[in-house]
């Protein structure tokens, strides 16, 4: 009877081991053929397992690149604190999730959405299985949608102004159709032009200096993230004429406040500039008339003196004439009367 019982116990153990082996093989096959990233982390957030094929395809890593290393080592510095907290909370609560940037083997950053659940392994140690997927395209689409919504909002708020966007290398990435009303170019035409092709040389220099100053401010720790810079400039119309433009510029920023581009709103101020010039000319003409009246008043007072000699009249007249000149402070003249 003892032999029979022993044979029965061994048979059941073998069956259990075979079932376990088959189960592990099924999960291995599922894991290795999955499109998502599957990893197992220990309580120190170090990788103990990855489905290598998916990691290599999406992130460029071999198994030996990650096993035994902390997941935080590959997390973007700006996401590290939140990711570490999410892992701590997940191990404590049993599950969790986080969107973060994970470093690709070639150095660029990949947005992933990670979801995890804890479990105890055969030795009773707490582990977490993390399933992640690449959401870079979704993030790009979300950013484009956000920028598009912002553009339409600004266009609706500024219907008579041109909306432009530049990347951080000052390449124009967007121009609203209203640019045609100002410079005669279509959006597509202006976006394929360099700044110096539609700006006068003095304006081009002015813009470069202004943006250099703004980039310098961006490197400072304490700065106004909502600051706006107003620049008056001259741009060249498609027909060759000069258009006076007032541009108001600010930085586009990501959720962390980092500058990702430049947003500008430009309006044609040519008529305003012409009006200002006309006002200056009118003011100058008025000043000339006032000077002339002062001169005439002085002459009238000169002739009121009884017994004034002809020499005194001529001398007084010569003394009063400079006050009626347009620019008496910068003009000079030599006066001769009776060989003097």
Automatic annotation (TrEMBL):
Membrane-spanning regions, if any? none
EC assignment: the record states: 2.7.13.3
| One of the Pfam families matching this protein, by short name | PAS_3
What keywords tag this UniProt record?
Answer: Kinase, Phosphoprotein, Transferase
Q: What Gene3D superfamilies does the annotation carry?
A: PAS domain
Catalysed conversion reaction: ATP + protein L-histidine = ADP + protein N-phospho-L-histidine
Residue ranges of domain PAC in the record = 96-147, 229-281
Q: Report the GO molecular function annotations.
A: protein histidine kinase activity
Task: Check the record and name the PROSITE patterns matching this protein.
Answer: PAC, PAS
UniProt domain PAS: residue ranges:
23-94, 148-218
The cross-references to NCBIfam families, in alphabetical order and at most eight, read:
sensory_box
Protein's name in the database? histidine kinase
Give the originating organism.
marine sediment metagenome
